[in-house]
Amino acid sequence: MRITFIRPHMTDARASDSLEPLAFAILASLTPPDVELTLIDERRQPVPDVDTDLVALTVETYTARRAYEIAARFRARGVPVVMGGYHPTLAPREAARFADAIVIGDGEPVWPAVIADARAGRLRRIYQAAGEPPLDGLRPDRRIFRGQRYPPMRLVQATRGCRYACEFCSIHAFYKQSLRSRPVADVVAEIEGLGGGHVFFVDDNIFIDRPRAEALFRALIPLRIRWSCQVSIDVARDPALLALMARSGCVTALVGFESLDAANLRQMRKAWNLKDGDYAGAVRRFRDHGIMIHGQFIFGYDHDTVDAFDRAVDFALEAKLALAGFNTLTPTPGTALDERLRAEGRLLFDRWWLDPAYRWGAATFRPRGMTPEELTEGCARARARFHGYRSIAWRALDRRANARRPYNLGLFVLGNVISRREVARKKDRRLGSGAPLEPDGTLDEVVELPGAAVARSGGGSR
Ligand code: B12
Ligand code: SF4
Fold first, then answer.
1. What is the tally of structural domains in the chain?
2. Are residues 399 and 291 in the same domain?
3. What percent of the chain clears pLDDT 70, i.e. is strictly above it?
4. CB-defined site of ligand 2, < 6 Å
5. In this structure, is residue 457 part of a structural domain?
6. 235-277, pLDDT tens digit by residue?
7. What is the pLDDT of residue 444?
8. Residue of the nearest CA to atom 8 in ligand 2?
9. Which of 123, 158, 144 is nearest to 41 (CA)?
10. Bridge partners of 56?
11. Residue 417 vs residues 17, 63, 386, 393, 423: alpha-carbon distances, Å
12. 152: which of 9, 197, 259, 416 fits an S-S bond (Cβ 3.0–4.6 Å)?
């Protein structure tokens, strides 16, 4: 049997920020050895019409349209298609209209059954594990990445889920309250087997709780690696943990500042971001330990007006952030934000991710403090200002973090070059190729899907 893993791209341009799609290494490790596996990453190469017995797509909301186009091509040739990942999990009824089977939630517990059913020619429509299986014993098989020439940034996952519940967040929609961590020994064994490279912990919040974070950081020290992560700002209130984080090799941390406005933070259920004082203090503590900060900001909450963009960029420059994202608040399916904006009648698109008129970076709803056009343009202006050469040079002149060591500076320059290129490439791009979509049935009618092992309620109703 031949299975082709496909990682679709969101636009029709190539991408320079593509990293190893970890989900496929995990699935590969659970695939029987007689199955021939191939990986096609559309961010790096076009998808050819390969001969295969099953296509398995990993799908996010931004890549959903493109995934459906690719699926249609294979299904027209009689090749069955299975989809998994964030989007099929959060919009299962929609995704099921473009695939033979979808996987809701974790792939590990159901992947062997998907293969067995595909072999027997009787794929079910939906696969979903009951409950939240523990993460013990995961051994991603990275042989699937051979020949792809990904950058030497190795994706490793130590935990799944986040203890917070920000209104806009797909992570919370996907994992809800569930918080799981892998045994530290498994994570260490995996890193030891990588044979080098910078480790990027893809955990949504590596500070899942103090004892587990501390145990992981302590175990990393003897490995003498350098690593990056995503972390909630409250880690900065704990100087001992921050020091341990730096000692164990943490070089960059992605921090969701989101907004400088306390009322916006309250509305997005992230008031805790300012619980320990203003951002300047937290930034200082990260930088005192030489940890570079990748800040994320979103715009369009009710208390934002047109001056929010410049204020955020001023802060990002003042704080000498190594990298920063300036994003339009965008409702993704299954989130509380999507539900609220829909109920308030403020959406500009029913499903922006499928709408041929949508362009990357554009407002998808009517903000209160500005027009949708001002929101779109304000974010584009903020990105352009932050990624300008003067800004890059100013931020590079930072001996405490960005230029603390040659390694930091190298990462800083590379990150800024790639980020500058990617924001220019994605700007105003449509998602997918623009080809018309042909779902099985209509997207608006709500039908029960046959064969659903466990039906999810609430957010996953699309
Ligand atoms: C690393 C990362 C990136 C990297 C790229 C990663 C790469 N491989 O190249 C970078 C930084 C470049 C990036 C960019 C973006 N990202 Co990103 N990224 C992530 C992150 C942190 C980790 C991804 C990962 O490896 N996860 C670990 C794997 C194991 O988990 P998984 O993919 O969910 O897979 C499991 C299941 O879902 C399932 N599964 C998944 N696929 C399949 C397929 C099959 C067939 C089966 C059976 C099962 C299955 O099985 C797996 C094991 O259980 C996630 C958050 C997260 N925790 O996942 C965000 C995330 C995926 N990104 C997100 C977004 C929005 C983006 C951007 C669009 C941001 C932007 N504004 O531009 C861009 C563009 C992405 C694109 N589509 O091109 C969102 C997607 C939300 C959504 N509703 O789709 C996430 C969830 C972050 C968030 N907080 O909301 N990203
Ligand atoms: S802290 Fe980050 S990962 Fe956690 S719910 Fe909020 S946005 Fe999502």
1. 2
2. yes
3. 96
4. 162, 164-166, 169, 171-172, 204-205, 232, 256
5. no
6. 999 999 999 999 999 999 999 999 999 999 999 999 999 988 8
7. 62
8. 169
9. 144
10. 5, 82
11. 10, 24, 12, 12, 10
12. 197
